[in-house]
Amino acid sequence: MSFELIKKVNDAQKKPNVVDARSGDTVRVHQKIKEGAKERIQIFEGVIIRTDRRDSHTSRITVRKIASGVGVEKSFLVHSPLVEKIEIVRRSKVRRNFLTYLRDRGGKSARLKNLSFDRDAVNDIHDEAAEAEELRLKEVARIDAEARLAEKAAAEAELEAKQAEVEARHAEAE
Question: Does the predicted model carry a pTM greater than 0.85?
C-alpha cells in the first residue's frame, strides 16, 4: 500500500513528455533562472556525458561544454520544473553511458562521430504546461515593456509641460 502511494506521488512529479536524450548527444537545455523578481530563460549547450535513472522521476543528465578554454559541467534533473525544455542538436555514436573520459581530452581527440537522425521528429515534444509558461513569460515581458513605455511617455509629457511653462514665463518677462 505505501509503495503504491509513493509510486503515485513520484509519477505525479514526472513530466508527461520528455525528449529521449542519450549519452553523446549535443543538447541545448533551456533553464529557468530567477533573479530577484525577474525570470529569464538561460540556454546551456553541450555534450551529454552521463545519464542517470532514465525511467525515474529523478532522471538526470550531465552536460559538458568548453567555455573560454575551461570545461564546464552542469547536471540537470530532466523532470525539474526549472528545466523548460531539452533540445537535441546533434547525435553521436558512442558505446558507453558515462563519457567521463572526455574530461581528460581536448581538441580533436575529444570529437565524437556524428550520426544522422531526424532532428525535427526527435525534438517534436509538445508540453502544454511548458508552452503556456513560455507564453506567460512573454506576456509578462510585454506588459513590463508597455509599462516602461507609458512611464517614459508620462515623464516626457511632464518635461514638455514644464518647458512650455518656462517659455510662457520668459515671454511674460520680456
Answer: no
